[in-house]
Amino acid sequence: MLGAVCLLPAGLAHAQSADALIDKLVAKGILTAKEGEDLRDESDKNFTTAFQTKMGMPDWVTSYKLGGDFRGRFEQYSSGNSAMADRTRIRYRLRFGLTMNMLDNLETGFRLGSGDVAKGYNTATPLSNSSTFQDNFTKKDVFIDTAYGKWTVVNSGGWLVSGTVGKMDIPFSFTPMVLDQDLTPEGAVIQSAWNINDNQSLSLNGGAFVLDEELASVHDPFMYGGQFLWKAKWSDKLSTTLGVGGFDIVNQDQLTTANVPLINQGNTRTITLDPITGADLYSLQYSYAPVILDASATYTLDSFPLYNGAFPIKASGEFMQNLAVANKNQGFWVGVTFGKSGTKKTWDISYRYERLEADAWYDQLVDDDNGAFYPGDQLTGTSPAIPFGYYGGTNIKGHLVKFNYSVTDSVTFTVTCYINDLISHDGLQSNPLVPDNKTSSLIHVMADINWLF
Question: Does 38 share its domain with 158?
């Protein structure tokens, strides 16, 4: 197995050389385009057969895909509150995975990823694959980021229906206000799509996900969710999307600080007692069943200064309301993006304003980079639960500016800047040992270089 993997780069190089030769023969008129395509298919088939033999894989495995990405990041936090010490750190993210396609429209795969261990746990934080440069060059951990099986039951006549089970990439198109993009949910989903014609499509996705498994209870916390999305292309220049979705968390009383990592902040919590140890447990006070609406419109210009190709301008937004709570239950963002990066010498710049109230949604699932400074200890019940400091999550309002430039098809440079405040200081008590000028303002800047492979 290992020897076959080591031979893979040589095989890929051979395949790339063969493709280049076939392209030249077609360009010179020695081969027709159809003959070139047939020859390329035959070359690919021979390589796949030889590779399967070396790997010892069964005949029903039809193709493999290896890939991943590496990101280097410089990150800085600074606040208008003198109680917060400005912070700088350098981090990296590495992800590498294998996808295998099989006969009968079956697929399985996995991805490994870097990450720092969540405080109090021996597993990585669910909200980030970043690992911090620290601790005298210590070796860093690698974790299972995804591991799944997928069966596409229908893929014909414009219809697509598939089911996936395992630990997977987010199966919805919600933004980080709803689900941090580094989350890899664990559960099962059914995804369906219908291409009405070349310009219109509908999709409907639904799933059930396990948030935790409790040793002392059969009432495990689950999350159910779904999204309906309509995509339309009205002309060569104008396209739109419109979506509606929602989530429901059941048995949320089990999501205590003793059972799951507490990374973000914002939700209203109360103190309960552990029935076994008698220790204080900080439990969610409310239920979370938000409805989410999102929309976008993209207009494409034929050209734009300093941009390679047609230039898209996209206006978009998202609104969320937690139907299970009467107050502090809404969130929204609106923004605009100019350009689109991803291919050599393309770029984009975007602006977004977001306001996410404390109990609009479960704070442990939203963007952890979008945060503010808590200028006092956060009270829960009758005792301080969370000390002052920087936290992502809900109860945040502010601005996001982001710039991407693709140096090549595989390398992109990114600068991201959050400028945020807390929406409410309710429940905060000043720490007598910490000077406090009451402001929660914070600037969070990240500069990234990302390599795809």
Answer: no
Residues 40 and 143 in one domain: no
Which residues neighbour 365 within 8 Å (Cβ) at sequence distance 6 or greater? Answer: 178, 179, 180, 183
327: Cβ–Cβ under 8 A, 6 or more apart, which residues?
359
Number of domains composing the chain: 2
Other CB atoms within a 10 A radius of the CB of residue 119 amount to 9
- Contacts of residue 205, defined as CB under 8 A and 6 or more positions apart, other chains included, come to 171, 172, 189, 190, 191, 192, 226, 227, 229
Place of tokens 């200890």: 377
Examine the domain organization and report whether 390 and 296 are in the same domain.
yes
d(CA 118, CA 71): 20
Q: Do residues 273 and 176 both lie within one domain?
A: yes
β-bridge pairing 87-102 and 131-132:
antiparallel
Contact 47, 34 (CB under 8 A): no
Residue 5 structural domain:
1-57
Residue 174, helix vs strand vs coil? coil
Q: Say if residue 347 is in the same domain as residue 376.
A: yes
pLDDT tens for each residue of the chain, 453 residues long: 444 444 444 444 444 556 666 677 677 677 677 776 776 676 666 666 666 666 667 888 888 899 999 999 999 999 988 888 899 999 999 999 999 999 999 999 999 999 999 888 888 899 999 999 999 999 999 999 999 999 999 999 999 999 999 999 999 999 999 999 999 999 999 999 999 999 999 999 999 999 999 887 788 999 999 999 999 999 999 999 999 999 999 999 999 888 899 899 999 988 777 777 767 778 899 999 999 999 999 999 999 999 989 999 999 999 999 999 999 999 999 999 999 999 999 999 999 999 999 999 999 999 999 999 998 877 665 555 667 889 999 999 999 999 999 999 999 999 999 999 999 988 777 777 676 668 899 999 999 999 999
Residues 6+ apart with CB under 8 A from 74: 88, 90, 446, 447, 448
List beta partners, residue 247: 225
Which residue is it, tokens 């991201």? 416
Report which of 336, 441, 446, 428 is spatially closest to residue 397, judged by C-alpha positions.
441
With beta carbons less than 8 A apart as the criterion, state whether 339 and 365 touch.
Answer: no
CA separation for the pair 196, 375 (Å, rounded):
53
CA-wise closest residue to 15 among 54, 42, 53: 42
Quote the DSSP letter at residue 52: H
Q: What whole-number distance in Å separates Cα of residue 93 and Cα of residue 69?
A: 8
